[in-house]
Queue: 3 jobs
Job 1
Amino acid sequence: MVFMSSQRDILLTTLNARYMHSAFGLRYLYANLDELQTKAEIVEFTIQERPLNIAETLLSYRPKIIGFSVYIWNVAEIHDTVALIKQIAPEITIVLGGPEVSHHPDLPAVCELADYVISGQGEISFRGLCQQVFEQALPTDKFIEGQPARLDELTLPYRFYDDEDIRNRLIYVEASRGCPFKCEFCLSALDKTANPFPLEPFLEEIDQLWQRGVRNFKFIDRTFNLKVSTSTRILAFFLERMSDDLYLHFELVPDNLPEKLKAVLKQFPPQSLQFEIGIQTFDPDIQTRISRKQNNDKTRDNIRWLREHTGAHLHTDLIFGLPGDTLENFADSFDQLVALKPHEIQLGILKRLRGAPLNRHNDPYDLRFNPLPPYNILSTNSVDFMTMQRVNRFARFWDMIANSGRFINSLPLILDDKPFARFMQLSDKLYDLAGQSYKIALRRLFEMVYVVMTEQLGLDENRVKAQLKLDYARAKIKGVPDYEKLPSLTKKAKAGVANKRQRQHA
């Protein structure tokens, strides 16, 4: 939203992971403040900003109430910001909401600093709490259970995306809320079902965004293709407005792709659709253990069909560290997914979400999580800490090399017939060479990949050079690697790592 320096009694705020993200939930709260809306303002930050500067900006509005939207990625920074505000202006009422604070008594430390914590849906309850604060009729209970609202009674928030949002930020939309599935690693497992917004009023709002110039719509529905009649109606809406710059993101249920939906999807031009497809695991025992219903045969068939018959970008997800996971069975899921040729495979490391049903497995499977955000899994009874670290590095190097699209010619040589095993070799060796898996210059990465492909994977030098040359040209890096001098890179890197480790232990 546009920065305002005038006084606002109510501030709605959060820290986004990046500037390009927008706080969809805050816009819902703002849209449903009714007569209090004239007293309110949305002020957004990013987690890269200093808490002291954030506190200064918020206090410059001279607010009476500040509502923070708290997630796993910003809870630490919000804690520090709230601590500062309570030291400087303790009279300000601090209200917290969001997934990270919605599961009393499993709460982060920031809740101790706040005046009120609203769990679950907040559109009605936050407005009611603000009224009570202004009337000095304060609730006696610090923890307030959010009052669910009928979706047809909510004021939709889309007109509160301003021109700056439309130019520079992702525009999130939702045609439904909730999820009927019970996958235990996900907070949506707590939902009873998926509920749709009234479709025609929703499409009227989306049409207004389109007329204002929005061409990138990110649907956050957990199950966009659950009700196919609704899915096809929404897709038809966009087909009527198709343009070269229109881009739509949907999350698909992987095993539900009936012919009626396929017929519509085939009408979209290449590069206009992105599908996020959560696979998580192909292991049927783990699927049963975590209450995940997924027909693996249909899932594989549908991904093949999407790859072969549409121009959609396929972003798929796997999770490592689920109860019962081993390196071997995860490798099997990974290899199966690679064979289906999605454009991206996002390798997620299991995280402990407050309130998620998966927490019932913590003791039986000795799931040990990082006590600090983002609460990533550290070890289980079948995966030790060192193995978990190797997979973490694997995931980072996979992003750099595979998901980045910079090595599309070289990657098939690396993966060959045993993708997981061979990329793990690459990952381990790259870490030995670089001594880290972050902040590696692109030219340096190309040089190290060449060394590993030829020395560790035993690939023909001329063949590797030919494929890397194509990728290097696509990456538009100045200069050309001097491959003849690169073998010395191995000894040099090893010496550097050894010196670094000596300094760490000194």
Note: The domain at 170-358 is CATH 3.80.30.20 (pyruvate-formate lyase- activating enzyme).
Job 2
Amino acid sequence: MISYLKGTIKLKEEDFVIIVVEGIGYKIFILGQDIAKLKIGDMAEFFTHHYVREDDERLYGFSNFEELEMFELLFSVTGIGPKSAMGILNIAPLNSLKAAIAQKDVSLLTKVSGVGKKTAERVVLELASKIKSSGKTAEETSDLFDAVEALMSLGYSRAQALSALEKVPEDISDAAEKVRLALKNLGKK
């Protein structure tokens, strides 16, 4: 089982990269915010989940171990496959996602394609007690989601929006202020 890879980015696509490790290229499906940060030729490292089924074999990569753990928790829920788990992790930053689950807020999860209300409720039911929340309120999570949506309506991808919002200080809670500061971050590129 492949659990960790470190190498050079050879190819970058919408939802995966090819990383060359000791002359061997590995295709790794990664989160959008990680793809947005990488450039071809960059040295990168990923904690990986090696998904194997009789008709499919894939690597899912994460920039930190906490994201990998969350992926595996989501994947353990009945009705959530690896694509849905990645979709959920792509919808919001990890702390906001944990806060939504801990507070039993299914509205964020239902924004993911392929995750309906019943599946979102199952995720909350099975994971709420297993997740340590960052202490964010549902309102703060909602403001962050609103900021992401606002940036996307301006033509930025979800990955670009999340990456820019990651740089906004955590003490800023107002969605409009988050968007203003994120736009400054996006303008610096």
Note: The radius of gyration is 17 Å.
Job 3
Amino acid sequence: MRVHKFDAWGNDFLVLDMADVRSQGDATGPIFRDPSLINWPAAARAWCDRSVGVGADGLMLLERIDDVNARMRLFNSDGSAAEMSGNGARCFAHALFRSDVARGERVYRLHTDAGIREVTVGERDADTVVASVDMGEIAPLSPPQGWAEIGTHPDRPVMHLTVGNPHTVVGVEDVNDVDLLSLGRKVPQVNLEVIAPGPEQHAITMRVHERGAGITRACGTGACASAWAALSWGLVPQGGERTEVLVHMPGGDAIVTVHAPTRGRVTLTGPARHVGAYEVAWQAAMGSAS
């Protein structure tokens, strides 16, 4: 099978078109005509492995509904399912954009396990697009199991939020002084972000330990949750009805617009790059899907 690899601020994903999977059934066998029989978690673990596979933070399955709508399923590199990914959504929309004949700005509706996400794609060059995702509403979330035993300093601001997937954001003085790997492993059921203000007035600096992937170079939903928390705590000043926050991550800088397109929602904007196409062994996807 052929997968396409995309990169968004160092957060990388493999995209597999389900139409290509079903076409394998003509030559390979009936299992590919019924994708529910395929062991996608095993495929994600094998193909995303950076030592023996292509290497990626996750595997996304693309299924076209029509010219505008597409179903997006996401598996983390450890094989677990994820409801949503902001960077993944931008990479996924780039995959749709590449397969379309027409060029110029396009709008896609992605059907994810967290609901529908609308993505606007504009071409920058042959391999890179700029994509903006309406990430939906930000809402409070209960603390993850075991959070009370973590032992964070009581003066540190903490916010538990959902952006379609769970996040815990912690304010710190310096994100590089935190043993993020150890802290993230104590709450593996959430995406954990540590943030600090600046260095610019309307900016924050962020590091992330992602659920199902570990420490990654960037996280789109994490950038959104972090910008929301930073604005709530006063780490960045209000910018009127809408506030644009620059989120510095090890992999690159995200632009998060809080209260856009409407109040209570956030929009994530940044580049998504096509890295290349890779042939992967379909045997990794064989076996019981249960």
Note: Residues 139-263 form a domain with the Diaminopimelate Epimerase; Chain A, domain 1 fold (CATH 3.10.310.10).
